[in-house]
Each structure stands twice: as C-alpha cells, then as structure tokens.
Amino acid sequence: MRKLLSFLFCLTIVTTALAQTPSVIPLYAGLVPDSKPSKVQETIVNEKGKIRISNVVQPTLTVYRAAPDKANGTAVIICPGGGYARLAVDHEGYDVAKRFNEMGITAFVLKYRLPNAQSQTDKSIAPLLDAQQAIRLVRQRAKEFGINQARVGLMGFSAGGHLASTAGTHFARPVGDTKDQTSVRPDFLMLLYPVISFSDSLMHAGSRNNLIGEKPTVEQTRQYSNELQVSGQTPPTFLVHAQDDATVPVQNSLVFYEACLKHKVPVEMHLYPKGGHGFGMNNATTKDNWTDRLQNWLDAAGWLAK
C-alpha cells in the first residue's frame, strides 16, 4: 500500500510538471496565409536580459497549461507588444502566462507576424489574421488543452493591445478567405497600456506607420482606430494604463473606456499616476499589483470558477 501511494504521489508530481512545461505549436497546419516567398528571417535578440523577436515568418503559440489541480477551463491568448516592429515575449508574454497559470488559467503566448511587405501580400492584415487564427485553434482544440471553448480571452500589451482590441472589435467579418466558421470573437479582453487610436492626436506613430503606412487613407485610419469600432457586441474589457505614459498617451485607454460605456459594454479601468510605458506586470512606482486587480475582475465575472 505504501509503495502504491508513493507511486501515485510521484505520478502526480510528474503530471503537474508536464502540465507546466510550455510547448510550442504552429499556428497554421499548412501554408501560412497572406505570405509570399522572401529572404526575411526571424531574428531573436537579447536586449539587456530581455528577449525581443522580429521578422516573424512562422507564427506560433507557446502553451502554458494550468496544473490539473488548479485548472478551471479558462484560456487566455497573450499578444506581446513592440510597436508592430518586434515582440517583447518575456515580460509581456511568458512571465504573464505563468501568472495566469497561478489563477488556474491555461495561457497561450502568440508569436504573431509583424507587418512586412517583403514577406506578406497585405501587411495590414497579417497580425489580425494570426490573432483570429489563434482564437480558432484554441477553440478547436479545447478538449486537448482542457479548456472551455466558450471561455477564451485575449490580452494585449501596447501594440499587442491594438491587435487585441482590433480582434475584439472586428470579429464579425474575419480577415482572409478561410471558410472556417469557428467564432473569432474573444469572450473577454484585457488591454495593458494599449495603442487604441490611429488618429493624428492619439496615435503611436511607429505602430500606425508599421501597420498601415506613413500616409494612410482616412478610411484606413478610421478602420484601425478601435475606439470607433466598439459595439454592443464588444467583449467585456479590463484596462490598465499610466498617466505619465509618454509613448502611448493614456487617452488611448480613456477613449476605449468611454466607447464601452456608450455601448453598455462591461468595462473596468485602472489608471496609475506614474509608471511610464512597458512596465509589464510590475509597475515599480506603486505597491499595488494590477494583476491582483485583474484576478479580482476575472473572479467576479466567473472566469475563475471550475
């Protein structure tokens, strides 16, 4: 009996360890849509201990499974930021995924394609194609991942917040020519110091220029100014921003919040007087931890219930 209990204990430890070891899966089973042959090669650099990825050609999902004893069936897909020029995959991706695991949520870090005319036929839709495909894939393989396909959230930081807010407002007419009918509407949104508007007064110039060019049309600017795309079907949203953000003005979060109010979309926002831009999970200017506020929000909405 003692040997059996010992065996079962060891099996539990091994199972838990395997569940928490991240795995990488391709986003597409075959050819990547909206791509063309090029000499573009993915680049990974370490900038003062921080990993940055650029020139993504083969998009992937890195899967962080919640431990079996904690898993509650909710999933979150994370879009790191980087101005649509690079991906800050560690402090706005992998680290955040581990925090979600602590909440019992299975997390997926999306390595999405960055706009690149050399390797894409239409650079303006490549990131959104990947975000929408990530939602499809997670829902289609929900049983395998041990999650509920009706509990799939989307998170984005900075330009990744623009991508997430685009996915959260443009789901009625998915981009690309796929005939797949799987819903690409996220069940909830979490936007951290997000790029929201491409208007001249609020835009982050690098993000806008990289996605739709330095001289976009009025229609392109409006289409990707997501405060103008909010509707009554926009998912419940959680926002975090710092007032002294000199890179992405805090008004980006404010206008999205106001649009949610106008359309009666449930929304919660946390603003800090200081913190700047790109602080990830740790705003060093305050003892408050916004991930605790997020956990409370998720709990109140029922996303943490088993």
TrEMBL record:
Keywords: Hydrolase, Signal. InterPro entries: AB_hydrolase_fold (IPR029058), BD-FAE-like_dom (IPR049492), GDXG_lipolytic_enzyme (IPR050300). The keyword Hydrolase applies. It comes from the Bacteria. Residues 1-19 form the signal peptide. It holds the Pfam family BD-FAE. The keyword ATP-binding does not apply. Residues 62-258 form the BD-FAE-like domain. GO terms for molecular function: hydrolase activity. Gene3D superfamilies: alpha/beta hydrolase. This is Acetyl esterase/lipase. It comes from Hymenobacter gelipurpurascens.
